[in-house]
Design a protein that fits this description.
The complex is a heterodimer of chains A (about 325) and B (about 700). Chain A is an alpha+beta fold. Chain A has twelve helices and twelve strands. Chain B contains 16 helices and 26 strands. Chain B has about 700 residues and is α+β, with helices and mostly antiparallel strands. The chains are: A alpha+beta (about 325), B alpha+beta (about 700). Chain A: Keywords: Oxidoreductase.
Amino acid sequence: MREFGYERVLDVSGAVALLGDDPDARFLGGGTNLVDLMKAGVERPTRLVDVRELPLDRIEFTPDGGLHIGATVTNSDLAAHPEVRRHFPALAQAVLAGASGQLRNMATVGGNLLQRTRCGYFTDLAKPCNKRAPGSGCPAIEGEHHNHAILGASAHCVATHPSDMAVALTAFDALVSYETADGPGELPLADFYLPVGDTPHRETALPPGALITGVTLPAAPVAAHSRYRKVRERASYAFAIGSIAAALDVRGDVVREVRLAFGAVASRPWRAGEAERVLTGGPASAEAFAAAADAELAAARPLPHNGFKVPLMRNLVVAVLTELAEEAAR
Amino acid sequence: MTTTTGTAAATRAVGTAHTRVEGLAKVTGAARYAGEIPHPELAHGWLVLSTVARGRVRSVQDAPVLAMPGVLTVLHHGNAPRLESDYTVPFGQPDPALQLFQHDRIPYVGRPVALVVAETPEQAREAAEALVVEYDEEPHDVAFFAGRPGMYTPEGSAAHKGDLEAELAASAVVVDAEYTTPEEHHSPMEPHAATARWDGGRLEVIDSNQGSRFVADELAKLFSLDPDSVRVRSEHVGGGFGSKGTRPHSVLAAMAATVLHRPVRVVMTRRQMFALVGYRSPTAQRVRLGADADGRLRALDHQAECQTSTVFEFIERSADFGRPVYDADAHHTVTRAVRLDVPTPTWMRAPGEAPGSFALESAFDELAEKCGIDPIELRLRNEPTVGPLSGLPFSSRNLRACFEEGARRFGWADRDPRPGVRREGRRLLGTGVAAAAFPTLSAPSTAAVTAEADGTFTVRVTAMDIGTGARTALTQVAADALEVAPGRIRMRIGDSDFGRAIIAGGSMGTRSWAWAIIAAARELRERLVPGGAVPPEGITARSDTSAAVGALTEMERHTFGAQFAEVAVDVTTGEVRVQRMLGIFAAGRIVNPLTARGQFIGGMTWGLSMALHEEAVRDQASGGHVGADLAGYHFAAHADVPAIEADWVDDPDPDDPVGIKGIGEIGVVGAAAAIANAVWHATGVRHRNLPIRPDRVLGAAEGALGA
C-alpha cells in the first residue's frame, strides 16, 4: 500500500482548514468505501483527515419539527433512532437494507452520500472508465451492464449510485449542510448530485474542500407513512438492482400527497417527480399507480441487458403504493 | 508403560458424532495457515498478472521498481531460472501454466508476468502495482456460447448405445431442451498461499493445497530435484474444492527462495484467484429424452459443451452424469469443448456432475410434466438393474430408498403437481425434486501407524483436511481399527514426508486414507504381543494399498441421493427464495455424522448458490472478468440459506474395509435442478439458464403477461 498521511481532527473548522485546498487529501469517515478504493488503487489520497471524532453525531429535532442528522452519525445509530423510525420509517428501512451490521456500525451519514459506484469497470484499474480516468471510455455500455442506469445516463457513463439511504433522503427533500473555509453552506439533495453529461468524474456540487456536516429533513407528515423496498440478487450483502422509497397520504381514496424516489436506476437517487405529479389529487388505485410509474419511466433508455429495470420499477411502484394505501385504509 | 491394544478398550467410534479434533486450535487461532506462519528473514512475493488476453510481453520495466524501498528482486521471463517441462504427473500431462516466466507468450488475462519480492508484503505490493509491463497485443476470443465454431470432441468424452433417432421417432413423448450454466469459481475462504525456504539442502514448503505429496513431487520435477529433497507441509487448509493443486504461488515461492537464498512467501489476493486457480467452465447443454406414454425411457441424448484454454485441456464432463443413473434403449452422451483465450478451467466440486445434473434432472422434470407422471415415480420407473452402458452390476444402489425416505419426510405425497397455483401474498410457492449420483473411487495410499511406549498411537498419512473433518474421521477409523478410544490416537497428516497418499479430491480421500490406516493398524496389531512392552521408539507398521485397491473387481460404484427443495417466487420483482431443502443420500458408511452432515449441507448450499447466484462475468472487450471479487461474484449469503436438512440411508460399501464411499461432492449434485424444478412448479416457467436471477424471472413473467 502507498504511504499516506493521517490526521484526526476534533472540530469542524479545524477539519476544513487541515484539508485546505489539497486535491489529493480526503476526509475519512467510516472508511467502508474509501479504504476499499484505496486498496484497489482507485483512490490514492496523499492525506486522510479523519472526521469521525467531530461533534456531529447527534440526531435532533429542528424548530419546524423536522430532523437534523449529524454527518458522523453511524448508519446503525440512524436506523435505530426512535424518532427516525417513527417519522421517517423508510429512511430506517433503507439504511438497514444496506451492507451488513459491521459495516453499518462504521459507515457514516456523510460518507454514505459520497460513496462511489460499484460498477465493476470503475473498480478495476486494468479497464477503461470515464469516471475514474476521464476520456478513457465506458466499456459497460458495450459490455457488462445488467445492473446499470436506465435513467439520466449518458454516452460517457451508465453507472448507478449505490446508496440506499440517499434514496430515502431524496424522497424526503433532504438538505445537505456543509462547511468550507469561507463558511457554511447548504444544498438540496436534489441538486447535490450533478448530471452525468460528459463529466461523470464530477459527482457532486459540493465546493472544493467542503466537509458535509449534516442532513436536514424538513417536517413531512406524509413521511410517517413510508416504506423502502430493495430488490437485490441475494437476500443480503448486495447492492440494489432496483429500489424504491415511497410515502403516501390518502384520504377517501384520493392521493393528497405522495413521495417517490428510485434507487439503482441512475447516477443519483432518482426523484420520481413526474409520477408524483400524475398521482397527486387522483385516485389511489393500482391502475393509477401503474400509470404514474409509466409516466416516470417514459424517459427510461435501457441498454440491451438492463431493460428489466423498467417493469421492475413499475412493479415496485404499484406494489409499495398499494401496500401503503391498504395500510392507510385500515 | 502401557501396552498395546486390548479387548477391554473396544470402541465404536465410527458412526458416532465427534467434534473436530483440531476444533479448539481453530477457534482459538492456534491453528496456523500457510500464509501466517511466522518465519525469520521472510521475504514477500507479489504476483503481477497480464492485463491482455493474447499476445507477447514486449518488456518488463523492472529497473525503476528495483529502486523502490525494500525491493529484492523482480522475476520475469527475462531472468527466471529454467524449469523442467518434460515430465508427467499422476493425472497425465502437467499443466503448462506452471511453466512460469519461461517464455513471453500471453494466453489469457491473468497470466503471471512477474513476481516482485520485497522485505514486506506492502512494499512488494506497491512495487508490483508500479511495475510497467508492455505487451504486443493480439486479437483474442473469449466468447463461449452454444454451438459456437471451434467445438471439438475430446478423446474419450463420448459414450453411446442404440439407435437414437429411431428411438426418438418411436417415442410417444419427447423433451428437447437446451440449458446453460455460467463460469463458476471455488473461492475457498483461505486464499492460496505458500512459504518456501531451503533448509539443509531440502526445499521446505508450507503450502495450502489438497495434496502435499503431489505438490512436493511436482515441485521436485519442475526444479529437477530429487523427490526426497522436497517437503511440503499443509497442516491446516481453509477450503479447496478442487482449486488447490500445484498452483503458481508455490512454484514462484520456491523459485524466489532459490534465487534469493532466503525464505519467500507468496499469497494470492482474492482477485488474483479468479485468474490463477481454475474455475468451472461455463456449459451449454442439449438434452433430448424420448419415452413411452408410461414414462419408460427409449432415448436419452445428452450433448454438453464447455470451454478450455489454448494451452491445456480440461473438460467439464457434464454429459457423463446420466451414464449410471438412467437406462434407455438408445443412450448417447458426449461433451465437446472449444479452446478460448481464457485460463484453463479445473475440477470444481462435482466436476461434470454439478452442471450435468442441472440439465438432465431439469429435463426429467419436463418429461414428467409431459407424461403426466410424478417426477419421483418417473425416475423409479427408469431405475436400471445394471450399468446402462457398462452392463456391470452396481456395488450398491439405494437411490430408491433415498427417494422414498425423502418423499416421506418432505411430505411429497400431498403435492399438487399443477404449476403456478399456490400463492402466499405476492409470492408463488413450489416444490421440486432431483436425483443425485457421483462416482465412488479409491486410490492407492500409504500410511504408518506407531504404537508408542506411553500407550498412545501415532498415525502418519499424507491425508489432507481441507475443512471436511477428515482428520477427525480418520482418528475415529484408527481408533476402531486399534480398538482404543479416539483420545489415544495422534493423527498426523498434511506432510509429504509421510509418503504417498491420494489428494483430498474426487470424494475419495477419506475412503482411500482410511483403507491404508486400517491395513497398517492390522499389521501393527499382529506385531504387538498382548501384554508385551513397547520399546521407547515405538513399534511402527506401514501399509500400501496399491495391491488391494488394484484388486477391486470392476463394478458400477456410486453414491446416490434425492434432493428436495421448496421455493417462494415474487414474480413482481423476480426474487426467488428457497424456503427449505432436504437431501437424503446413500453414500456408504458415514464415519462422523456431525461433519458428514456439514459436508452434505455445504454441498446443498453450493447447489442453492449455483441455482440462484453464482456467475463470473467475462468482459468480451478485455477478455478479463468484471467484478472479480466477493462483492461482484455473488454466492448465497446466510440470509439466502434456509433450514437445510441432510440425512442418509444405510448403504455400506461391501468392498471397503470400513464401508465408506465418499461424501465430498454428492451434496451439490442435483440441488440446482431441484430448485429450478421448484421454480417451475411455483410459476409455470422453466428456467434453463443459471443462475435464476431476478431479471430472468421477471423477464419470463413479463413475457408470459405480454403473450
